[in-house]
UniProtKB/TrEMBL annotation:
Name of the protein this chain belongs to: Propionyl-CoA synthetase
GO cellular component terms given for this protein: intracellular organelle lumen
Family: Belongs to the ATP-dependent AMP-binding enzyme family.
Domain AMP-dependent synthetase/ligase: 68-445
Domain AMP-binding enzyme C-terminal stretches: 510-588
Length: 630
């Protein structure tokens, strides 16, 4: 079947289409009905089924004779370690770790926070939770204590599973003090923690609360897989919204299994037994879906890579890993290729690494700029497929269905909508615009299996953030257009979310941190274009009357505050004290105009601006930060 035929088959009978795909999953009780309409535009998939995620990701492959196949290849240039873990070994480790958690009282529905780096034990911890029906929430290691504390207070975990440290090029990041700090800050206190002690840096454990991973598992019995309903959450993953409170995206078990299984062949074009590599981090949705769950659910071998595209040790690393492990499909963020291109523009370091087995490269997480795509195409000779999705959806909204049909690539477009997604470009009034015209991208409800049915603890916020603006649609927060052939083009966010090196961050959250500085009366954070990271955050602060300390000192304190309270991953390094901010007469800060000025873009002076003279003041302030570039 062609892509058009598959997409039409879904449109003709959406429920029949997904029930058919559901046959690839091993259910305890198979779904009789696909979609459950809960009223008021709330939907759930496979709610009448009983199933276990870990069984589908691990045990069923052992039972089917894949026990000796590598499930995970751990490749860690930062520690000089390589390890293959077979499906049988993974089953053994997961079942025993789950048994230890169960012995400590972890049950179906309990939340468990996981704060760990890119090591196999992180996947073991995630799968062990799923085995028990406990709901995990992985927190990215680049987030500071405060961010971890906010998630602890929202998810109210019974336990936190952590590692003693993460390893960044040139520095070891001690996780335990960050975890201790978070538990101190949080109102909710977990019953206990389990800490995986890495040889690079041991953590101090608190008697009675903290358990050493090895001792914790010793003597534990293997736990069986606990069946859960299809609509039971397998995990919560927090993502940035427009305020400092992150959104807890809920991932439902049944839809997650069905959708991810479908994607491995139809989008990533890999068959069971083949090696798949997503160079991301388990702390992000790409890591959840494509380092851990999807490749394991589909019986592939997944590469768990603890390193960076450059500097670990150099720009040959991607090529080395692809060649050494015979990777068939590779997934990364455009910024990673920009890093490689910057270090090794002619890809001379590819020499000696045979990547002929690789079929295609998939990019996501941020807009893929044409230069990067063309460069990657030229140096690898492989198809480069951009694809567009979000934490909320958990899998591709628009992409190239390479396992169905390799259609022409249009550079600058992540291609076409996947079955399940009726993507529309709408004007402010919610009416579809003509092909080629820009608008807000929305998806007609219901969303397909695997996507978020709600936000954890926040059904009203879910409704307000996604469903209320365009009734009958899910609002993606992205703006763009669609061409005559149905190819989508994603241009920009419509909200205050920015994308820094493929990491989704909230400028609102950074503003809250700056506003907390005792000398700051008012502030604004914008995203400015950056050749390397896509966007960088830039802050402007107005000081409280009477403060006359050196501005540079306050700017440095602001930078440190964001690093300490959000984390190094925010990459907040540009900050400037100004007398006033550009505003409308009604007092709304003109962030987009500020970003236009910083990017050196032509812009129309907003008719409602309070005082046009502010534009020159902004230009002067930006000049001191080196903007606009070039
Ligand atoms: N734990 C602790 N600190 C972390 C961290 C982690 N897991 N991940 C990143 N950090 C820190 C970094 O050390 C860095 O700190 P610094 O300011 O002291 O240098 C800061 O956070 C920013 O990190 P990063 O975004 O990784 O920038 P970088 O300049 O170190 O590296 C790239 C640039 C392009 C190599 C890197 O951003 C990258 O690999 N990006 C790919 C993104 C990706 O995979 N996204 C997932 C979506 S597909
Ligand atoms: P996240 O939830 O962290 O995956 O971030 C999702 C957001 O990243 C989207 O809403 C887009 O703004 C952006 N994004 C992800 N993939 C792409 C892509 N292929 N092209 C353009 N923007 C993208």
């Amino acid at each position: 079947m062609s892509y058009a035929e598959v997409y039409q088959a879904w449109k003709n009978d959406p429920e029949g289409f997904w029930l058919e795909q559901a046959r690839a999953i091993d259910w305890v009780e198979a779904p009789k009905q696909a979609l459950f309409d809960r009223g008021d535009h709330i939907y759930e998939w496979f709610a009448d089924a009983q199933v276990n995620t870990c069984y589908n990701a691990v045990d069923r492959h052992v039972e089917a004779g894949r026990g000796a196949q590598a499930a995970i290849i751990y490749d860690s240039p930062v520690t000089g370690t390589k390890r293959r873990i077979t499906y049988a070994e993974l089953q053994d480790q997961v079942a025993h770790f789950a048994g230890a958690l169960a012995a400590r009282g972890i049950e179906k529905g309990d939340r468990v926070i996981i704060y760990m780096p890119m090591i196999p034990e992180t996947a073991v911890a995630m799968l062990a939770c799923a085995r028990l029906g406990a709901i995990h929430s992985v927190v990215f290691g680049g987030f500071a204590s405060n961010e971890l504390a906010v998630r602890i207070d929202d998810a109210k975990p019974k336990a936190v599973i952590a590692a003693s440290c993460g390893i960044e090029p040139g520095r070891t990041v001690a996780y335990k003090p960050l975890l201790d700090g978070a538990i101190d800050l949080a109102t909710h206190k977990p019953d206990f923690t389990v800490v995986f002690q890495r040889p690079e840096l041991a953590a101090e454990l608190t008697e009675g609360r903290d358990h050493d991973w090895t001792a914790f598992v010793e003597g534990a019995e293997a736990a069986p897989c606990v069946p859960v309903r299809g609509d039971h959450p397998v995990y919560i993953l927090y993502t940035s919204g427009t305020t400092g409170a992150p959104k807890g995206v809920v991932r439902p078990t049944g839809g997650h299994l069905v959708a991810l299984q479908w994607t491995m062949k139809n989008i990533y074009n890999v068959d069971p037994g083949e090696v798949f590599w997503a160079a991301s981090d388990v702390g992000w949705v790409v890591g959840h879906s494509y380092i851990v769950y999807a490749p394991l659910i589909a019986g592939n071998t997944t590469v768990l890579f603890e390193g960076k595209p450059v500097g670990t040790p150099d720009a040959s690393t991607f090529w080395r890993v692809i060649a050494e492990h015979d990777v068939k499909s590779f997934f990364t963020a455009p910024t990673a290729f920009r890093a490689v291109k910057r270090e090794d523009p002619k890809a001379e370091m590819m020499a000696g690494h045979d990547i002929s087995g690789l079929r295609a490269i998939y990019l996501a997480g941020e807009r893929a700029d044409p230069d990067t795509i063309e460069w990657a195409q030229k140096v690898t000779g492989k198809p480069i497929y951009d694809h567009w999705w979000q934490t909320e959806t958990g899998w591709t909204i628009a992409g190239m269905p390479a396992g169905i049909e390799e259609m022409p690539v249009k550079i600058g477009s992540p291609s076409v909508p996947m079955p399940g997604y009726d993507v529309q470009v709408l004007d402010e009034g919610g009416h579809p615009v003509a092909p080629g015209e820009l608008g807000a991208i929305a998806i007609r409800l219901p969303l397909p299996p695997g996507t978020l049915p709600t936000l954890w603890n926040a059904p009203e916020r879910f409704r307000k953030s996604y469903l209320s603006h365009f009734p009958g649609y899910y609002e993606t927060g992205d703006a763009g257009r669609v061409d005559e052939d149905g190819y989508l083009y994603i241009m920009a966010r419509t909200d205050d979310v920015i994308n820094v090196a493929g990491h989704r961050l909230s400028t609102g959250a950074m503003e809250e941190v700056l506003a907390g500085h005792p000398d700051v009366a008012e502030c604004a954070v914008i995203g400015v274009a950056d050749d390397f990271k896509g966007q960088l955050p830039m802050g402007f602060v107005c000081l409280t009357k009477g403060v006359n300390r050196p501005e540079a000192e306050i700017e440095a304190e602001c930078v440190k505050r964001v690093r300490d309270q959000i984390g190094p991953v925010a990459a907040f390094k540009l900050c400037k004290v100004v007398d006033r901010l550009p505003k409308t007469r009604s007092g709304k800060i003109l962030r987009r105009t500020m970003a236009n000025i910083a990017d050196g873009e032509a812009f129309r002076m907003p008719a409602t601006i309070d005082d046009p003279a502010i534009v020159d003041e902004m230009r002067d302030a930006l000049k001191t930060l080196g903007y606009p570039k070039g």
